[in-house]
Amino acid sequence: MTPETLDVDELLDDPARRVVVCCGSGGVGKTTSAAALGLRAAERGRRTVVITVDPARRLAQSMGLESLDNTPRRVPLPEGTPGELHAMMLDMKRTFDQVVEEHADPARARQILDNPFYETLSTSFSGTQEYMAMERLGQLRESEEWDLVVVDTPPSRSALDFLDAPERLGRFLDGRLMRFLTAPAGSGPLRLLGAGVGMVTSVIGKIVGAQFLNDLRSFTSAFEAVFGGFQERAERTYRLLQDPGTAFVVVAAPEPDAMREAAFFVERLASDGMPLAGLVLNRTHPLPEGPAARLGAEEAERAAEELSRDGEHPVAEAALRLHAERARTRGRELLLRDRLLTAHPGVRVAEVAALAGDVHDLTGLRWVGARLAGGGHEGSAGAE
Fold first, then answer.
1. How many CA atoms lie within 13 A of 44 on its CB side?
2. Is residue 261 part of a domain?
3. Position 138 in a domain
4. Of the candidates 282, 314, 220, 332, the residue with the CA atom closest to the CA atom of residue 29
5. Domain holding 179: CATH number?
6. Which of 111, 178, 193, 352 is most buried, taking the most CB atoms under 10 A from its CB?
């Protein structure tokens, strides 16, 4: 099976394209892919910002910056570069604080920001990072300061967390349990419980701690005034992700779990009406070009066995065995790729071959970007 090529340059050059989202499971090279796409876009004339949430801070290192924070910083590029590249690292708590300050009056905002429960929610609650990544994306896009915003999504357990987190956080903040725990004693569900409410809250207080329960009540009471703004912004950003000016690039490594996540994400994007640009298959092991590439694994192994019997050509034998192993690896990669393409025909693909080490500078990012733009597929696994 020969897949359609993902034309990265066409994707980046389109002036109507304002957002590119790199998504996929953790550890597949999303950060490097996002940075490489951002650099290539800048070198092709676009004013670009890359937002990353990678805790390893490799993006800053690869771009020659000391560090990144919640404010976009300009990346020094060679003189004569037609565009600009900026980069930032998501500070989810600072972003959460900014949204609270925007939607609440100063007194209520201070009440929320000083609440111990808010401290926990804004720094460690599951889904907060993904929610704030979408929030920051919305802020950057609405500023109209950038031709292109490239997003490196959080290194979540599941690639779908990026799309599910805003709704999950909203359900938690607006859920029945929260309303039950924080309702005044003489109103709502607590009033219906009558005399038993004291015993219920006492038991809950012993489980979570009386002070925690008080903090939770205080937080919810203050937060109710700004919750609607949070929901509205999340819905607006979700609509932005469905806009034709947005493109999703699913990044995967040729491994079963990563390809399974990639397939789930492709299905989810289709069901939610979100535009998929294509698949980046990262860290692959293509065979060298030339006649040797047509030598299958079993054929190479048989030839190595023949050389082994006469014992006169140890170097050639070792080379054949190495080729056989490489061919098997490539066959497995193509089989995984073709399974995804069979289930989702029409998905465009670009490949990036595995490197000997990590990308740590602009030269490495430029190489990755050129490889992305060049495609670089081979035939189907069946040809191996």
1. 20
2. yes
3. yes
4. 282
5. 3.40.50.300
6. 352
Sign of the CA dihedral with 280 first, then 284, 290, and 296 last: negative
Structure-token pair, residue 330: 């490539």
Residues 52 and 33: beta-carbon distance below 8 Å:
no
Q: 41 near 149, Cβ under 8 Å?
A: no
Of the candidates 151, 152, 128, 93, the residue with the CA atom closest to the CA atom of residue 234: 128
Is pLDDT at 180 greater than 70 in this prediction? no
Higher-pLDDT residue of 53 and 108 is: 108
Q: How many CB atoms lie within 10 A of CB 81?
A: 15
Residue 42's Cβ-side half-sphere holds a number of Cα atoms within 13 Å equal to: 29
Residue 301 lies in a domain: no
Query: How far, in Å, CA of 353 to CA of 337, rounded?
Result: 14
H runs (alpha helix) in 125-248: 128-142, 161-173, 176-182, 188-193, 196-208, 210-242
Q: How many domains does the chain have?
A: 1
Domain extent for 109: 8-291+324-383
User: DSSP of 200-225, one letter per residue?
Assistant: HHHHHHHHH-HHHHHHHHHHHHHHHH
Is the Cα torsion angle 85, 245, 278, 377 positive or negative in sign? negative
Q: How far apart, in Å, are the Cα atoms of 114 and each of 109, 110, 120, 312?
A: 9, 6, 11, 78
Half-sphere exposure of 269 (CA within 13 A, CB side): 28
